[in-house]
Amino acid sequence: MRNPRLLIPVVALVALAAAACGAPPPVLANARLDFTMKDMHGNDVKLADFAGKPIVVNFWATWCAPCKAEMPMLVELAAKYAPQGLTIVGISTDDEAKEIRAFAEQFKVPYPMLVGLDRKDVLNSYGYTSLLPLSVFIRADGKIADRLIGARSEEVWENKIRALF
Predict the structure, then answer these.
(1) What's the pTM?
(2) Per residue in 76-130, pLDDT tens?
């Protein structure tokens, strides 16, 4: 092989794709909303404040290319389904508030963006296993309806969101 360093990113991508195609973490009966987290402005946000309406919790990171690719679609879906009561909550898995603010500004994100850095308790409770993006779909009754790992088409997202109502 002429340049083995070129093989490393290819192997990493294949491993990531294979892991993403595997079964998602087990669906929990009820979503844990008993966490208080900091938002990108340093304010406390209680996830329990979103209880009683459908929620999508989207785990992402600023360095994640699929997260960046799906963000404009999430912004559109948030606006489309907000009148029906849907809330999307973004949780950055390993970015600081400053980086999250810049990202949210770049993509004009209208929904709450929370700091997940050093919050393994939250990440673990939603089945985060280091694959991004991870989106958890929670019905108004608090039951987890579904999860998506990796970027998906708008059609898939629409179907998952409509199933929450």
Answers:
(1) 0.83
(2) 999 999 999 999 999 999 999 999 999 999 999 999 999 999 999 999 999 899 9
- Architecture of the domain made up of 4-162: 3-Layer(aba) Sandwich (3.40)
- Do 112 and 36 meet the contact criterion of CB atoms below 8 Å apart? no
User: What is the secondary structure of 32-77 as a DSSP string?
Assistant: ----EEEBTTS-EEEGGGGTTS-EEEEEE-TT-HHHHHHHHHHHHH
CB 17 within 8 A of CB 23: no
Spatial neighbors of 23 by CB under 8 A, at least 6 apart, are none
78, 133, 144 from 56: Cα distances, Å: 9, 12, 10
Structure tokens belonging to residue 62: 């600023």
H-helix or E-strand spanning residue 102: helix 97-107
